[in-house]
Amino acid sequence: MNEFGLIALPLDNPNVLPWHSVNEIACSPVLIVAPHPDDETLGCGGAIALLRSLNCHVQVLVISDGTLSHPRSQKYPAARLLALREAETLSALKLLGVEVNDVIFCRMQDGSISIQYQSAVASCRAYITEIAPQIIFLPWRYDPHTDHRATWKLIHTVLDDLPLSPRLIEYPIWDWDFDQRESLPVPLEVTTWRLNISAVVELKQQAIAAYRSQTTDLIDDDPEGFRLTPEMLANFTHPWEVYIEENR
Protein backbone atom coordinates (compact mmCIF):
# COMPACT_ATOMS: atom_id res chain seq x y z
CA MET A 1 0.00 0.00 0.00
CA ASN A 2 1.49 3.34 -0.99
CA GLU A 3 0.96 6.81 0.49
CA PHE A 4 -2.20 7.28 -1.56
CA GLY A 5 -3.80 4.09 -0.31
CA LEU A 6 -3.25 2.30 -3.63
CA ILE A 7 -1.72 -1.13 -4.06
CA ALA A 8 1.38 -1.40 -6.26
CA LEU A 9 2.72 -4.52 -7.92
CA PRO A 10 6.21 -5.61 -6.78
CA LEU A 11 7.90 -4.80 -10.08
CA ASP A 12 10.36 -2.43 -8.44
CA ASN A 13 12.14 -5.43 -6.97
CA PRO A 14 11.28 -8.49 -9.10
CA ASN A 15 14.29 -10.37 -7.76
CA VAL A 16 12.32 -11.22 -4.63
CA LEU A 17 9.41 -12.81 -6.51
CA PRO A 18 8.92 -16.57 -6.14
CA TRP A 19 10.01 -18.93 -8.90
CA HIS A 20 7.78 -21.17 -10.97
CA SER A 21 8.96 -23.80 -13.41
CA VAL A 22 7.56 -24.47 -16.85
CA ASN A 23 6.17 -27.78 -15.59
CA GLU A 24 3.63 -25.80 -13.57
CA ILE A 25 2.14 -24.32 -16.74
CA ALA A 26 2.77 -27.14 -19.22
CA CYS A 27 -0.46 -28.10 -20.99
CA SER A 28 -2.11 -28.00 -24.41
CA PRO A 29 -3.34 -25.93 -26.02
CA VAL A 30 -1.91 -22.64 -24.78
CA LEU A 31 -3.03 -19.31 -26.24
CA ILE A 32 -0.82 -16.22 -26.18
CA VAL A 33 -2.73 -12.98 -26.82
CA ALA A 34 -0.69 -10.00 -28.02
CA PRO A 35 -2.11 -6.47 -28.37
CA HIS A 36 0.60 -5.61 -30.93
CA PRO A 37 3.04 -7.61 -33.02
CA ASP A 38 6.02 -8.10 -30.64
CA ASP A 39 4.21 -8.13 -27.27
CA GLU A 40 4.00 -11.94 -27.36
CA THR A 41 7.78 -12.22 -27.70
CA LEU A 42 8.67 -9.43 -25.27
CA GLY A 43 6.34 -10.62 -22.54
CA CYS A 44 6.14 -14.36 -23.09
CA GLY A 45 8.97 -15.37 -25.44
CA GLY A 46 10.65 -17.51 -22.82
CA ALA A 47 7.43 -19.23 -21.84
CA ILE A 48 6.64 -19.92 -25.48
CA ALA A 49 10.03 -21.50 -26.13
CA LEU A 50 9.90 -23.61 -22.98
CA LEU A 51 6.36 -24.82 -23.66
CA ARG A 52 7.25 -25.74 -27.21
CA SER A 53 10.30 -27.65 -25.96
CA LEU A 54 7.82 -29.81 -24.04
CA ASN A 55 5.71 -30.25 -27.21
CA CYS A 56 2.87 -28.15 -25.83
CA HIS A 57 0.66 -26.75 -28.57
CA VAL A 58 1.11 -22.97 -28.47
CA GLN A 59 -1.06 -20.66 -30.54
CA VAL A 60 -0.71 -16.89 -30.84
CA LEU A 61 -3.44 -14.31 -31.44
CA VAL A 62 -2.21 -10.84 -32.46
CA ILE A 63 -4.96 -8.25 -32.10
CA SER A 64 -3.67 -5.08 -33.82
CA ASP A 65 -1.62 -4.57 -36.97
CA GLY A 66 1.04 -2.27 -35.52
CA THR A 67 0.90 0.18 -38.41
CA LEU A 68 0.89 3.28 -36.20
CA SER A 69 4.45 2.67 -35.06
CA HIS A 70 5.70 4.74 -38.02
CA PRO A 71 2.66 6.68 -39.30
CA ARG A 72 4.60 9.19 -41.41
CA SER A 73 7.00 6.83 -43.15
CA GLN A 74 7.00 7.11 -46.95
CA LYS A 75 9.17 4.02 -47.33
CA TYR A 76 6.76 1.95 -45.26
CA PRO A 77 3.16 3.09 -45.78
CA ALA A 78 0.52 1.21 -43.80
CA ALA A 79 0.12 -1.78 -46.13
CA ARG A 80 3.85 -2.39 -46.41
CA LEU A 81 4.39 -1.87 -42.68
CA LEU A 82 1.61 -4.34 -41.89
CA ALA A 83 3.29 -6.96 -44.08
CA LEU A 84 6.66 -6.25 -42.46
CA ARG A 85 5.39 -6.50 -38.91
CA GLU A 86 3.58 -9.76 -39.61
CA ALA A 87 6.71 -11.18 -41.24
CA GLU A 88 8.72 -10.16 -38.18
CA THR A 89 6.20 -11.87 -35.92
CA LEU A 90 6.34 -15.09 -37.89
CA SER A 91 10.15 -15.03 -37.91
CA ALA A 92 10.32 -14.42 -34.16
CA LEU A 93 7.81 -17.13 -33.38
CA LYS A 94 9.51 -19.61 -35.69
CA LEU A 95 12.66 -19.17 -33.61
CA LEU A 96 10.58 -19.88 -30.51
CA GLY A 97 9.09 -23.02 -32.07
CA VAL A 98 5.64 -21.82 -33.17
CA GLU A 99 4.42 -22.82 -36.63
CA VAL A 100 2.96 -20.31 -39.11
CA ASN A 101 -0.45 -21.98 -39.00
CA ASP A 102 -0.62 -21.39 -35.26
CA VAL A 103 -0.45 -17.59 -35.57
CA ILE A 104 -3.60 -15.55 -36.21
CA PHE A 105 -3.58 -11.83 -37.04
CA CYS A 106 -6.79 -9.89 -36.33
CA ARG A 107 -5.39 -6.82 -38.17
CA MET A 108 -7.21 -4.18 -36.17
CA GLN A 109 -5.51 -0.79 -36.38
CA ASP A 110 -3.52 -0.21 -33.23
CA GLY A 111 -4.84 2.59 -31.13
CA SER A 112 -8.42 1.66 -31.95
CA ILE A 113 -9.05 -1.73 -30.34
CA SER A 114 -11.71 -0.25 -28.07
CA ILE A 115 -13.40 1.42 -31.07
CA GLN A 116 -13.62 -1.82 -33.06
CA TYR A 117 -14.58 -3.74 -29.96
CA GLN A 118 -17.77 -5.52 -31.01
CA SER A 119 -16.39 -6.97 -34.22
CA ALA A 120 -13.30 -8.08 -32.33
CA VAL A 121 -15.42 -9.85 -29.72
CA ALA A 122 -17.22 -11.85 -32.37
CA SER A 123 -14.08 -12.97 -34.21
CA CYS A 124 -12.16 -13.77 -31.03
CA ARG A 125 -15.11 -15.68 -29.61
CA ALA A 126 -15.19 -17.95 -32.64
CA TYR A 127 -11.44 -18.52 -32.51
CA ILE A 128 -11.25 -19.25 -28.78
CA THR A 129 -14.29 -21.53 -28.99
CA GLU A 130 -12.54 -23.52 -31.70
CA ILE A 131 -9.21 -23.99 -29.92
CA ALA A 132 -10.51 -24.20 -26.30
CA PRO A 133 -7.23 -23.23 -24.62
CA GLN A 134 -6.36 -24.51 -21.17
CA ILE A 135 -4.21 -21.45 -20.44
CA ILE A 136 -4.41 -17.95 -21.88
CA PHE A 137 -1.55 -15.49 -21.52
CA LEU A 138 -2.90 -11.95 -21.89
CA PRO A 139 -1.73 -8.41 -21.10
CA TRP A 140 -1.78 -7.14 -17.54
CA ARG A 141 -5.17 -5.50 -17.03
CA TYR A 142 -3.68 -2.23 -15.75
CA ASP A 143 -0.91 -1.89 -18.31
CA PRO A 144 -0.45 1.84 -19.08
CA HIS A 145 -1.09 1.30 -22.80
CA THR A 146 -4.77 1.61 -23.74
CA ASP A 147 -4.54 -1.16 -26.37
CA HIS A 148 -3.22 -3.56 -23.74
CA ARG A 149 -6.06 -2.78 -21.35
CA ALA A 150 -8.59 -3.06 -24.18
CA THR A 151 -7.15 -6.44 -25.14
CA TRP A 152 -7.51 -7.71 -21.58
CA LYS A 153 -11.14 -6.53 -21.54
CA LEU A 154 -11.75 -8.09 -24.94
CA ILE A 155 -10.62 -11.55 -23.84
CA HIS A 156 -12.62 -11.36 -20.61
CA THR A 157 -15.75 -10.31 -22.51
CA VAL A 158 -15.29 -13.28 -24.82
CA LEU A 159 -14.82 -15.71 -21.94
CA ASP A 160 -17.89 -14.40 -20.12
CA ASP A 161 -19.98 -15.79 -22.99
CA LEU A 162 -18.27 -19.18 -23.21
CA PRO A 163 -18.43 -22.38 -21.15
CA LEU A 164 -14.65 -22.31 -20.76
CA SER A 165 -12.53 -21.68 -17.67
CA PRO A 166 -8.91 -21.46 -18.81
CA ARG A 167 -6.18 -20.42 -16.43
CA LEU A 168 -5.48 -16.72 -17.06
CA ILE A 169 -1.90 -15.49 -16.75
CA GLU A 170 -1.20 -11.79 -17.27
CA TYR A 171 2.10 -10.30 -18.38
CA PRO A 172 3.37 -6.73 -17.90
CA ILE A 173 4.91 -4.72 -20.73
CA TRP A 174 4.77 -0.96 -20.21
CA ASP A 175 4.72 -1.25 -16.43
CA TRP A 176 8.47 -1.79 -16.78
CA ASP A 177 8.70 1.88 -17.75
CA PHE A 178 8.74 3.54 -14.35
CA ASP A 179 7.44 6.84 -15.76
CA GLN A 180 4.32 5.15 -17.11
CA ARG A 181 3.63 2.65 -14.33
CA GLU A 182 0.48 3.16 -12.31
CA SER A 183 -0.68 1.77 -9.00
CA LEU A 184 -3.77 -0.38 -8.89
CA PRO A 185 -6.89 1.79 -8.88
CA VAL A 186 -8.78 -0.74 -6.76
CA PRO A 187 -7.70 -3.43 -4.30
CA LEU A 188 -6.92 -6.63 -6.18
CA GLU A 189 -5.65 -9.90 -4.76
CA VAL A 190 -3.00 -11.17 -7.15
CA THR A 191 -0.02 -13.48 -7.11
CA THR A 192 3.07 -12.26 -8.95
CA TRP A 193 5.76 -14.77 -9.83
CA ARG A 194 8.77 -15.41 -12.03
CA LEU A 195 9.21 -18.09 -14.65
CA ASN A 196 12.77 -19.37 -14.99
CA ILE A 197 13.70 -18.96 -18.67
CA SER A 198 17.48 -19.18 -18.31
CA ALA A 199 17.62 -22.19 -20.65
CA VAL A 200 16.07 -20.20 -23.51
CA VAL A 201 16.94 -16.58 -22.75
CA GLU A 202 19.41 -16.36 -25.66
CA LEU A 203 16.76 -17.75 -27.99
CA LYS A 204 14.32 -15.12 -26.73
CA GLN A 205 16.88 -12.39 -27.39
CA GLN A 206 17.24 -13.64 -30.99
CA ALA A 207 13.45 -13.58 -31.38
CA ILE A 208 13.24 -10.00 -30.09
CA ALA A 209 15.95 -9.00 -32.56
CA ALA A 210 13.72 -10.28 -35.38
CA TYR A 211 11.58 -7.18 -34.77
CA ARG A 212 13.95 -4.90 -36.63
CA SER A 213 11.26 -2.31 -37.30
CA GLN A 214 10.86 -1.83 -33.55
CA THR A 215 14.44 -2.19 -32.32
CA THR A 216 16.63 -0.60 -35.05
CA ASP A 217 16.66 2.31 -37.48
CA LEU A 218 15.34 0.13 -40.29
CA ILE A 219 12.55 2.68 -40.84
CA ASP A 220 14.48 5.93 -40.81
CA ASP A 221 12.16 8.39 -42.53
CA ASP A 222 9.67 9.08 -39.75
CA PRO A 223 10.98 11.45 -37.07
CA GLU A 224 8.10 10.43 -34.81
CA GLY A 225 8.55 6.73 -35.44
CA PHE A 226 8.54 4.31 -32.52
CA ARG A 227 11.62 2.46 -31.35
CA LEU A 228 12.13 0.38 -28.23
CA THR A 229 14.99 1.88 -26.25
CA PRO A 230 17.88 -0.27 -25.01
CA GLU A 231 16.72 0.51 -21.46
CA MET A 232 13.23 -0.79 -22.18
CA LEU A 233 14.50 -3.87 -24.01
CA ALA A 234 16.72 -4.76 -21.06
CA ASN A 235 13.59 -5.52 -19.04
CA PHE A 236 12.81 -8.43 -21.35
CA THR A 237 16.20 -10.11 -21.53
CA HIS A 238 16.50 -11.31 -17.94
CA PRO A 239 16.72 -15.07 -17.27
CA TRP A 240 13.15 -14.81 -15.99
CA GLU A 241 9.74 -13.47 -16.97
CA VAL A 242 7.22 -11.96 -14.58
CA TYR A 243 3.59 -13.07 -14.56
CA ILE A 244 0.53 -12.04 -12.58
CA GLU A 245 -2.52 -14.10 -11.66
CA GLU A 246 -5.64 -13.04 -9.86
CA ASN A 247 -6.21 -15.09 -6.74
CA ARG A 248 -9.30 -17.26 -6.92
UniProtKB/TrEMBL annotation:
Q: Which source organism does the UniProt entry give? A: Dendronalium phyllosphericum CENA369
Q: Locate the transmembrane regions by residue number.
A: none
The cross-references to PANTHER family, in alphabetical order and at most eight, read:
BLR3841 PROTEIN, N-ACETYLGLUCOSAMINYL-PHOSPHATIDYLINOSITOL DE-N-ACETYLASE-RELATED
InterPro entries named among the record's database cross-references: GlcNAc_PI_deacetylase-related, LmbE-like_dom_sf
- In its UniProt entry, what is this protein called? PIG-L family deacetylase
Q: Name the domain of life this protein comes from.
A: Bacteria
Q: Which Gene3D superfamilies match?
A: LmbE-like
Q: Which GO terms describe its molecular function?
A: hydrolase activity, acting on carbon-nitrogen (but not peptide) bonds, in linear amides
Residue span of the signal peptide, if any? none
